[in-house]
Amino acid sequence: MVPQSHRFESPRAVMRRALELASRGLGHVEPNPPVGAVIVDDNLQLLGEGYHQQFGGPHAEVHALAAAGESANGATIFVTLEPCAHHGKTPPCADAVIRAGLKRVVVAMQDPAPHVDGSGIERIRQAGIEVEVGLLEPEAQRLTAPFVKRITTGRPWIIAKWAMTLDGKIASHTTHSQWISNATSRQVVHQLRGRCDAVMVGIGTALADDPRLTARPPGPRTASRIVVDSRARLPITSQLVQTARETPLLVAVLDSAPDAACAALSDAGAEVLRLPGDGNDHVSLPALLDELGRRKMTNILVEGGAGLLGGLHDAGLIDECQVFIAPKLVGGASAPSPLGGRGLEQIPQSGSFAHVDVEMLEGDLFVRGWVKHD
Question: Is the pLDDT of residue 87 over 70?
Fold first, then answer.
């Protein structure tokens, strides 16, 4: 935490601190959004700060007000998301702000959730408190994008992850793929698994790699494992099925999948989800995402293979890519690339990504970006 004696150089610096605090809740607060709050006096002297630490626990404003105590009276609170005005697992934060005697509230972005959507801001203004909205709004939108997508579309945020060689291969022509990326890159993947609601693969990857798809060491969330398996071919002897009673396993199959195979998976502890097809004897990916959204899953990590990733790309369902590029050459005309499916007919005239970050991980190139959707 910042020392209590800290004085911020500008209002933007205060909001940046609130955003930094909010990010600490990622993986802990879903399906709620991450939120941070900072209380300062007229000279931007820190009085108290806090963030939403876990789902069902006190919200950011409550933590900040508790830290500030009586000094909050007449002060300003900077909060990354509009204070709520409804009773959920906790009382309305707007009421706490009003009771504390704050004279000003600076909000980065309005909460688009139907049960909020400006009502918190309006309640605070009606109490005679000045409210400013929009400071560092783009940064707040980036932080809350997965929450906003789920709350506005009913579907989770889809993160496509793959590791590939410098010549764009995710395996050799013999299907050998371990290990393309280095140990540092793989540790980043485990950290990502540990904050997602589910890790998803296609049946081809499940058969070829026999993965566990768990986070090692465990993270703040225990991700469900999802296998998109139209014909229920996942072996009972696979590591995924063998650990299904320890870590949730969902197998998405077609309505027409063999009853005996589905029953065997269910008897072994897996949940079998029967879904409609896409017309090509594959599970409908939009229908699957709709179901995951109904279960309030916010972040889904898709780790392959080329068929599943290609299908998601063709349908415009990927929101973010996290790609690890190793300084290795494999070659081979039949060696798979990350995205299968139909693909585009022409090369895009502009970049496919927004908010691109590039980092070196002990020799691997780590590229992250949001997929642009027209």
Answer: no
> How do strand 249-254 and strand 299-302 relate by DSSP bridges?
unpaired
Angle at 108 between CA 105 and CA 111, to 5 degrees: 95
Please give the Cα distance from 355 to 369 (Å, whole number): 5
Has residue 55 got a pLDDT over 80? Answer: yes
Distance between CA atoms of 6 and 368, rounded to whole angstroms? Answer: 33
Environment class of 64 (CB within 10 Å of its CB; exposed 0-12, middle 13-18, buried 19+): buried
Out of 30, 49, 61, 139, pick the active-site residue: 61
∠ CA 298-275-317, nearest 5°, is 45
Summarize the confidence of residues 77-87 as an average pLDDT: 88
Mean pLDDT of 5-19: 96
Would you call 61 a catalytic residue per the annotation?
yes
Task: Average the pLDDT over 231-260 and give the result.
Answer: 98
Give me the chain's average pLDDT, please: 95
CA 350/CA 322 separation, integer angstroms: 19
